[in-house]
Amino acid sequence: MPVFALDSVGSNLVHLIWEATVVGIAVVFAFSLALKATIRASEARAESRHAAVVSWSIVALLAYTAFAASAVLAIHVVTKK
Fold first, then answer.
1. How many CA within 13 A on the CB side of residue 31?
2. How far apart are CA 77 and CA 81, in angstroms?
3. Residues 6+ apart with CB under 8 A from 75
4. In this predicted structure, what is the pLDDT of residue 6?
5. CA distance 57 to 76
6. CB 30 within 8 A of CB 63
7. What does residue 48 show for φ and ψ, rounded to 5 degrees?
8. Which end of the chain is more exposed for a tag (fewer CB within 10 A), N or C?
């Protein structure tokens, strides 16, 4: 009987590792996009390109929001297993 219990734990562990990896990559991607957009907005501001500043600022805001949401999702996935 312990073999079946071990098989179930192994399956759940593999599932947890897979989900944590995918969500972790999403967190890293969202934060790197947010940083890149912030840097581009800052460069556009220095060059007085107002439309580009607004555009990159919106992208940065959306990316920071996605980062926060994916970080919360990552915590939720790990703690619910």
1. 9
2. 7
3. none
4. 55
5. 28
6. yes
7. 60, 40
8. N
**Crossing angle of the two packed helices 50-79 and 2-46, in degrees rounded to 10:** 170
Token readout for 37 is 């957009």
Tens-digit pLDDT profile for residues 28-46: 999 999 999 999 999 999 9
pLDDT, mean of residues 62-74: 89
Dihedral sign for Cα atoms in the order 51, 57, 60, 61: negative
Confidence of residue 60 (pLDDT cuts 50, 70, 90): very high
Q: Among candidates 35, 39, 41, which has minimal Cα distance to 58?
A: 41
Whole-number Å distance between alpha carbons of 43 and 51: 12
The tokens of 8 are what?
């179930």
